Every structure is written in structure tokens, then in C-alpha cells.
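Example record

Each entry pairs one chain with its bound ligand, zinc ion.
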Amino acid sequence: MVAMETTATTEPIALLRGAGLRVTDSRVAVIAALDERPHSGVDTVLTAVATVLPSTSRQAVHNVLNDLTEAGIARRIEPAGQPGLYELRVGDNHHHIVCQRCGAVADVDCVTGHAPCLTPSTTSGFDLSEAEVTFWGVCSACKASQADAGETTP
Ligand SMILES: [Zn+2]
Ligand SMILES: [Zn+2]
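C-alpha cells for the complex follow.
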């Protein structure tokens, strides 16, 4: 089950060069994995990368994800109670809706298209730079399985 999503240029080598990062097999494989499965955690990325680079370690994937995040190629989101999730959709200040049952994540476009999306009623003297909104709910797959009553797929 792969969620289809329209994305801008996600050509790994172009992204790495554009960010001034050295092109390595593991970086290319991690970008390809994130392109295929946005909002993936380290373990999901590792599983995908291991199909092309079987000797890759979890630590190596973790390091690559950190490098990509620092370089602005990837974005890390951390919905409460979930491990860090990574995606290639950066720079548009979009938000997320997360399923309370299965943890499925979907993108929600930023209302204004740029940060900060929302302005609080008081800023307490802070300079606002970002508003990261997480919506919580129940995804359609979980709603459907609930309707099937009893038939639960882990
Ligand atoms: Zn769900
Ligand atoms: Zn996203």
C-alpha cells in the first residue's frame, strides 16, 4: 500500500549536488526511499535501503537522515508519541494529520503557504518563525476496519 503523492524534483543526485553534499550510494538510496514513502521513520527507511544496499546499518541510515535534514533536503517531523518521521517535502511549511489508531500521516497544505501559518493571540514577546500544526484523527483505513467489526489488521 503506497500513498501516491505529487512531488517536485526528487532526483537524488540533483538534490545532493544542489545542497553541496557529496553523492554517496547510501544518501541516494535514502532519498529514493523517502520519495517513495514520505513520512517514514528510520526503520522504514532502513528496510527500503537494505533492498539495494544490504550492508547498510541503522546507524548509517540515521546519520544520512541527519545530514539530509541539516542540508534542508529532508524535513523531520515528530508527532507526539511517535518516532521522528522524515519526508522530502520541505520549505512549504505544510502541516500533518496523524491517525490516532495506526499512526498514518497525511500532508495538509499550509493555509498561507509560508511560515508562520498561524499567529497566536499573544506572542509573549517572541519573534514568530514557524507554526507546526498536527491534526489528529482516524484515517479512512482504520474507519473501514472499524466498520468491519472484529477484523483488525495490525
Ligand atoms: Zn489509521
Ligand atoms: Zn509531510
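Residues 99, 101-102, 104, 139, 141-142 surround zinc ion (ligand 1) (CB under 6 Å).
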